[in-house]
Amino acid sequence: MDSQIKKIHEQLVAKEITCTGLVQERLNLLKENKYNSVNSLLEEHALDLASKVDAKINNGEEIGLLEGIPFGIKDVYMVQGTYTTASSDMLKKYKSAYTATAIQKLLDAGAIPLVKENCDSFGHGSSSENTIFGAVKNAVNPELVAGGSSGGSAVNVAKDYTVFSIGGDTGGSIRQPAGYNNIYGLKPTYGRISRFGLMAYTSSTDCVGPLAKSIEDIRIVLNVMSGKDVKDQTTISSEEIDETAIAADSKKVTVGYFNNFIEGEAISDSIKSDFLQTLEKLKAAGIKVKELDFFGGDTLVSTYYTLAMAETASNLSRLDGTNYGNRIEGENLIDTYAVTRSENFSEESKRRIVGGNQVLSQGFSDEIYLKSLALRDQISESFEKDFKEVDVVLSPVTPANPPKIGDSLKDPHAMYLSDAYTVGFSLGQLPTLTVPQGTATGLQITAAKNKEQTILKFANFLKDIL
Ligand code: GLN
User: Fold this and answer.
1) Which of the residues 3, 149, 153, 226 is marked catalytic?
2) Does domain 4-245 have CATH number 1.10.3520.10?
3) Is 173 a catalytic residue?
4) Which SS3 state, helix, strand or coil, does residue 51 take?
5) 142 CA to middle of ligand 1, Å?
């Protein structure tokens, strides 16, 4: 699909549509939707912004490319004055006091936020069922999960309720729901986009990124959000990616793939055969394809979850009903903390907080936490070696198709294992893009740090040959 952003921009400028009409139409769709993708609507503010865009156009003033473009925001981003619930009981009444840098940049460019989107509570999950707003339903088949944790964002884009949405990806939460709903979703290089104002889950892998229906829209939104930020010391500077620089021509690219992902037991027959067929098509198109060795899914998942649980246990310790969160009074202060936290966190979040505190505690941390840190270093070294030999790594997004709603909740361990192909790239802090092609849940294109341009260019090439 071509750029929706450009198409709408042209329609606005040519006065074929009004911004108010556009925003109202999308708000109505969001309101009526049966997919549970909405936590709260930003209706009044959105219509107010839209009328200002219309006034500008009617005055003959120029508008920027993103001006008047309606978008969605996963409900883990601070947007001043809006409810920012993380889909949790703990924060269901919390209103942001400030706005996240990434979102502010989009607002400054004139994009119009319509909705805070449903997700797994605090990003904990792979299905968007772990939420107080009801399980998000898959856009293609509503009996299946939308994927997670940015499920609401993926569904809103897939159903055209928003033109693009901003998700958050810690271990796959943009890429996996993008794959489950047949759209594009980018996890940029760690630090390319500021995390300031994104609720912290696993601070060492949390990334801000766009979900959209075209490569071009991903590029446009990525460029606007990127950049160093004094409010996030882990941010890095990056170059703007030009449209012409990502035009399809990837003949000289060498593609790697991890054989053990494809030979493992977890992969479904259809994803495996579709992936292998994709490799054949690449070879037929003259692309060099190279088999690579990598860590097994079990190692990746256990390393990721050990670190993710440790970091989230630490990050969420501030939610005690005193500093933040829905306070429930107990008999004394300690009791108040205990009741507040046990009543307001979901089962899944509690599992992670308990697990995280366990792996960090004396007697366990050497054996578990420090070992995971060492493994993470080895994973990064392995990537460094790989990207001396290949330009991109191609992999499936998930080992299987989306499960039925309800199934993941019964088996958290199976849910963790379904992240086998996404979490490794998070640990490596690499840029990686889901494209809606190649297998039923898409393909992931990954490159070395800061090589988003290579990825987008290769995605354009893949679009033409698959
Ligand atoms: N499914 C993974 C987890 O639950 C990733 C979630 C995410 O990226 N926020 O940790």
Assistant:
1) 149
2) no
3) yes
4) helix
5) 21
